[in-house]
Amino acid sequence: MESYSSTNSSFLQTEIRKICKVRNAIIGLFIAMFLLCYGFFFYIFLDKWTAASDKLTFFYKSLPLLSTLFVYFGGLFGGLSWFVYAKNQKFIIALRGLNSRDLDIYQRYTRRLVRIYATIAPYLFQEHELVFFPFFGSKKIPISQIHRIETKIIQNHRGPNSFRIYFYNEFSKIHQVTMNQRGAFDFLQEQLLEENPNLSIIARNH
Q: Do residue 87 and residue 40 come from a single domain?
């Protein structure tokens, strides 16, 4: 990891702690949901087991179902917990790998957001590349390859609007990203223009 100034180092460590705190809270919620779901069926089993005349037979008959439910709920919520951990860890590793210039960009990005808690960003500027964090893996696009972007505001009648940007090279679309905050949407365009003043920006519906 690059040697940062004391201010940048403090910001980075604070940001990572906040992200880890939210990650752990989400994983804790999944664990609680597992205990609640499995505990509900286990409570029903205990209630019927207590009332059964032949408790041993009832136990052996119920064991396959209890085991199946344990594996099902454990796999479901365990998988979700692993996904949240892996996705956050991938972002934290990328964040720690930023140089001072890119960390300054990220810090300016966070100031544009309205947020109660820290979450992983939909993109990072890293050594003249844009790094995206989709559901699986990550995607890097050299900024020099981006010739045009198109922007779109998605009207959600039952919730806040979403903001989408389509990236094009000289020939075709190469990626798209959707954001939930106007600040992230505007900042991405402004920073790309700063990196490439000749970038063409086309607004689809605004």
A: yes
pTM of the model: 0.82
CATH code at 192? 2.30.29.30
pLDDT tens per residue, range 81-138: 999 999 999 999 999 999 999 999 999 999 998 877 788 899 999 988 999 988 777 8
Taking CA atoms, 164 is separated from 84, 99, 127, 148, 194, in Å, by 23, 27, 23, 14, 20
CA torsion, ordered 7, 8, 14, 15, to nearest 10 deg? 150
Whether residue 111 is contained in a domain is answered as no
> Which residues, in sequence order, are CB contacts of 165 under 8 Å at separation 6+?
149, 150, 151, 152, 176, 177, 179, 185, 188, 189
Residue 151 and residue 92 share a domain:
no
Domain assignment of residue 191, yes or no = yes
